[in-house]
Known about the structure:
Blueprint: E1 5-10, H1 14-29, E2 33-34, E3 43-48, H2 53-69, E4 74-79, H3 80-84, H4 86-90, E5 97-99, H5 107-111, E6 123-125, E7 146-150, E8 152-153, H6 164-168, E9 172-173, H7 176-187, E10 193-197, E11 206-207, E12 210-211, H8 215-222, E13 230-233, H9 243-251, E14 258-264, H10 268-273, H11 280-293, E15 298-305, H12 312-324, E16 329-334, H13 352-375, E17 381-386, E18 394-399, E19 404-408, E20 417-425, E21 431-433
Parallel strand pairs: 1-2, 1-3, 3-4, 4-5, 5-6, 7-10, 10-13, 14-15, 15-16, 19-21
Antiparallel strand pairs: 8-9, 11-12, 17-18, 17-20, 18-19, 20-21
Helix pairs in contact: 8-9, 9-11, 12-13
The structure holds iron/sulfur cluster.
Amino acid sequence: MAAKKVAFYTLGCKLNFSETSTIARRFEERGFERVDFQEKPDIFVINTCSVTENADKKCRKVVQEARKISPNAYVAIIGCYAQLKPKEIAEIEGVDAVLGAAEKFQLIDLLGTFERKPEAHATVLASEIREAKNFEEAFSYGDRTRTFLKVQDGCDYSCSFCTIPLARGASRSNEMENILATARKIAQTEVKEIVLTGVNTGDYGLINGERKYRFYDLVKALDEVEGIERIRISSIEPNLLTDEIIEYVAHSQRFAPHFHVPLQSGSNEILKKMRRRYLRELYAERVAKIKSEMPHACIGVDVIVGFPSETEELFLETYNFLNELDISYLHVFPYSERNNTLASEMTDSVPLKKRQERSKMLHILSEKKRRYFYEQHLGKEAKVLFEQEHKGGMMEGFTENYIRITAKYDPLLVNEIKTVQLLEINANGLVEVCEPVWV
Ligand code: SF4
């Protein structure tokens, strides 16, 4: 009998990509054939996100597309949206199964034959989030130039706008030895860069509720793993980004001088209402510390605009604070009401139009920051990890400090780290480089 064909679609963050890739490998180990989304599979697995209202809408759109491509295929939904609103998803026409955070890794065993029963209601297997206690290992492989390595999951913080703790459960981490063993395994492959990912990555070290390690310990241990050329920290909370970590990265062999640090607001009044664990002074001090240790470091910032009670004055506080900071780019999120969050109960909501206006202003500021950051490195040499994608005769890649470059496509450069000279910024905002130095 021909192997059943399975296709995957992932919405959301690096953590979701690492988990989809791991679940896909389990299907292949069980004899399923992995195919692309449009190749009429027998089974679709859609890994969802729920950070914004938009994420929910996207899930519905992907289900509709799946139905069009393969009308009789079995459609299973996993991920954060599936944990938060299993019944709502089960009502979506064409969905056959919904699995929660505690169930998603047992998908093959739980759904067995993947036989559709169109007349029946969708199967819902989503226990309370407190049941999601186990740490399930995951890493992405084969889908991209770099590997996303899951080291931590869940979150014990309670930011007033965030549903992630409700979708992913309490903070929990993988045993250090397991992570090192996986990193060594990855080092044996052609992968050149590992991206450490989690929900609250800097909170690494809670094993069965006990604090066994600190993130700093993991950074030091991973820096010793031979064969991995680059390690990047996907994101880290400002209050968890210690001097030790910054100083260690500054002198490390493998850690990239790139820090993505969520700020969310530049107004202390709003930060308090967001129940963030720092004020803007700490954030500015972290940025100054990074730049004093690594002037060439790249600093990315998450910021939410239009949080309830964010007046024009408070927004301008955020704008001016960011404008004065020596940062490299912004990820801007218009505030999105999420059920069961404290913020969704707050009054003084900011009109959507205002949220979009403010978001536009910060996007413009982000481009200005990125361009200024890139300009500081023009004419200098940098090591670039060239990516595999062929884009109309060109290819792209990133320097260690996250400068995006473009170069003439050369198959010999795919997945290679080469020294280049950064020449100029082209009309698309990418840095053009000279021919790589073949050493
Ligand atoms: S730190 Fe805050 S924003 Fe981040 S996942 Fe935890 S609760 Fe959500």
